[in-house]
């Protein structure tokens, strides 16, 4: 089989469907370095990596051997295959049938090229219309949204004149046939009507590109308040299938390659993706008005292993996040997961950036929930868990969700994690770290929740070493509980032993009688060693209380933690603890050295 038998465009489409680092990574252990991946050469024996893979450009370069090329070349060299055998192997992997170069296939290719050209010419027409007299309403809208002309050009924004055939007339003058204009999704033809008409009229236009950056479709936003629908996309065409495309994918993937992020940011709309990009989060994409599909998840994971799905702060946004959980669970593998950033109530990412700034948005992304976090939250909050039957229902729902995970090791990891969450949750309820029952007043819930945390610290001073910063920063809704917490630090700062008696004495001497009675009414906590699982449970519960307290005060950054552990915050805590322990050790060593005889 010779290379000439392949029709034009097949090789390009094949490579579009591959991620080179995935192909190479099967044979070479790769490590990200800037926009590239680096590893030891598979062609020579070397100790210092000189083998580079560039996903964005689609080529590898081995400086040790001098070899380089694309995915096909890599398979040829590492598996000793001919060009066509390598093509056939890769095509089989991505589900592409190997075609023959026939007159018919050539005609199909030529037709596609004409459709690409029609879409590109339409993009140029819409851009010109944005800047002419008819585009003043679109320009005014963009300026109101805080976007200037440089941003319009950067995102190739345009305007479709509010006329029935302006684009058709323009494309016809450029040599495109009426059938080509319709097949490109740019015009609509209905039975019984004498002539087709422009699909987009009186709308702000967002060009939609494929993974190579070629314009293949458009999205249009209505500019009149009562216009329906608010957003309109191109219909599916030979070039465009909206369930398989992400807005801004090429730009975002290129930007992600030079960032320290773990994956792309996936938001809900065009304007959100543009606003994030303009604010410095250039690795943002958006689906096209539909729930995230399997094909779109595949695109997202091709760029990075842990994308953040960024949903609007309303019921619809939360439901969309929950639907994404069910779509993603069967596809999870090591190196393929999701995180979720839920916006404050009533806001989308564009709103957050305009009203609260980049720092607030960064905080929301940093505090994003893992897929397991959000799954737990969804099932935990579905109903009150105040009876054994309802608690069994929670366990059943979680088990059903986990059963959809296909990867055996990931499934086992989820089962372990969720069992631990259930154990911790009900342990906290039984210990008074949460409200005893739904009949308690909100005041009692706050008092008991905070008091349980503080009492555990008093009865187990060893816990405080790791939880020092969290205990100092925790927001306590009851002033008496806060007085008890402050006593702990007064005693520690005085370098006195910490126990119930010391705290009670301090409260009595400072006149905090209500706080004293509150502490005396709370039973002694069981003894816990710092290395036991219950110690970690206490730290997590302490962090949950901090998140809940901040949410009550309107903190947009921590309110969306929803009581779950933040991995980044956890890492920062341990870093501070390690630094403090190292300082104590140095002071101890210094004291010992000064006391030793010469």
> Outline, from the CA principal axes?
globular
Biggest sheet overview: 5 strands, antiparallel
Number of strands: 16
Low-confidence stretches: 433-443, 551-574
Q: Report the sheet-strand fraction.
A: 5-15%
Q: Mean pLDDT score, rounded? A: 83
State the end-to-end CA separation.
86 Å
Provide the spatial order of strands within the biggest beta sheet.
1-2-3-4-5
Please give a quick description of this structure.
It is built from 25 helices and 16 strands.
Structure report:
This protein is of the alpha+beta class. The chain is 52% helix and 9% strand. The chain has a five-stranded antiparallel sheet with strand order 1-2-3-4-5. The chain is globular. The N and C termini lie far apart (86 Å). 37% of the residues are buried. Residues 433-443 and 551-574 have low confidence and may be disordered.
Give the SSE layout:
Blueprint: H1 10-16, H2 20-25, E1 31-33, E2 36-39, E3 51-54, E4 59-62, E5 68-69, H3 71-79, H4 83-93, H5 103-131, H6 136-144, H7 149-154, E6 158-160, H8 166-173, H9 178-183, E7 187-188, E8 197-198, E9 203-209, E10 215-222, E11 231-233, H10 249-256, E12 265-266, H11 270-278, E13 284-285, H12 294-303, E14 308-311, H13 315-328, E15 339-342, H14 349-355, H15 358-366, E16 369-370, H16 371-380, H17 388-403, H18 408-431, H19 442-459, H20 464-473, H21 479-493, H22 500-509, H23 513-521, H24 533-552, H25 567-595
Parallel strand pairs: 12-13, 12-14, 14-15
Antiparallel strand pairs: 1-2, 2-3, 3-4, 4-5, 6-9, 7-8, 9-10, 10-11, 15-16
Helix pairs in contact: 3-4, 16-17, 17-18, 19-21, 19-24, 20-24, 20-25, 21-22, 21-23, 22-23
């Amino acid at each position: 089989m010779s290379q000439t038998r392949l029709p034009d465009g097949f090789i390009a489409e094949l490579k579009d469907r591959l991620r080179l680092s995935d192909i190479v990574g099967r044979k070479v252990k790769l490590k990200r370095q800037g926009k590239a991946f680096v590893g030891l050469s598979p062609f020579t024996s070397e100790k210092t990596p000189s083998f580079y893979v560039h996903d964005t450009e689609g080529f590898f370069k081995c400086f040790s051997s001098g070899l380089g090329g694309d995915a096909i070349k890599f398979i040829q060299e590492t598996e000793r295959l001919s060009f066509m055998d390598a093509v056939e192997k890769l095509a089989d992997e991505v589900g592409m049938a190997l075609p023959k170069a026939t007159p018919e296939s050539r005609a199909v290719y030529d037709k596609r090229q004409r459709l690409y050209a029609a879409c590109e010419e339409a993009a140029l027409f819409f851009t010109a219309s944005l800047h002419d007299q008819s585009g003043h309403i679109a320009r005014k809208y963009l300026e109101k949204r805080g976007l200037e002309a440089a941003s319009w050009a950067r995102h190739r924004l345009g305007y479709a004149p509010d006329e029935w055939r302006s684009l058709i007339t323009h494309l016809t003058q450029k040599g495109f046939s009426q059938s080509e204009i319709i097949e490109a999704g740019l015009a609509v033809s209905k039975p019984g009507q004498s002539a087709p008409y422009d699909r987009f009229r009186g709308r702000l236009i967002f060009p939609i590109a494929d993974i190579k950056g070629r314009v293949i479709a458009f999205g249009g936003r209505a500019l009149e308040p009562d216009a329906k629908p608010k957003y309109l996309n191109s219909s599916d065409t030979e070039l465009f299938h909206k369930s398989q495309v992400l807005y801004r994918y090429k730009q975002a993937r290129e930007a992600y390659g030079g960032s320290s992020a773990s994956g792309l940011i996936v938001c809900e709309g065009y304007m959100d993706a543009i606003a994030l990009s303009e604010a410095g989060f250039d690795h943002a994409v958006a689906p096209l008005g539909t729930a995230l599909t399997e094909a779109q998840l595949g695109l997202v994971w091709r760029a990075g292993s842990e994308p953040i799905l960024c949903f609007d702060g309303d019921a619809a946004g939360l439901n969309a996040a929950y639907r994404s959980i069910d779509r993603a669970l069967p596809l999870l593998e090591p190196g393929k997961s999701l995180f979720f950033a839920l916006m404050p109530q009533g806001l989308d990412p564009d709103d957050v950036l305009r009203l609260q700034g980049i720092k607030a948005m960064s905080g929301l992304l940093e505090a994003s929930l893992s897929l397991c976090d959000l799954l737990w939250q969804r099932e935990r909050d579905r109903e009150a868990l105040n009876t054994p039957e309802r608690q069994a229902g929670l366990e059943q729902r979680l088990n059903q969700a986990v059963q959809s995970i296909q990867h055996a090791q990931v499934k086992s990891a989820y089962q372990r994690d969720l069992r631990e969450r259930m154990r911790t949750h009900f342990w906290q309820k039984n210990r008074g770290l949460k409200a005893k029952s739904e009949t308690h007043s909100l005041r009692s819930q706050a008092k008991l929740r905070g008091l349980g945390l503080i009492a555990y610290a008093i009865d187990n001073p060893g816990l405080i070493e790791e939880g020092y910063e969290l205990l100092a920063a925790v927001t306590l809704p009851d002033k008496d509980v806060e007085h008890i917490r402050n006593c702990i630090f007064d005693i520690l700062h005085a370098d006195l032993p910490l126990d119930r008696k010391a705290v009670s004495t301090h409260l009595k001497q400072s006149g905090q009688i209500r706080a004293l009675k509150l502490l005396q009414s709370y039973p002694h906590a069981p003894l816990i060693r710092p290395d036991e699982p219950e110690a970690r449970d206490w730290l997590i519960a302490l962090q949950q209380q901090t998140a809940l307290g901040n949410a009550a005060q309107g903190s947009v950054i921590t309110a969306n933690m929803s009581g779950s552990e933040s991995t980044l915050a956890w890492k920062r805590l341990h870093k501070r603890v390690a630094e403090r322990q190292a300082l104590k050790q140095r002071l101890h060593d210094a004291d010992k050295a000064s006391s030793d005889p010469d």
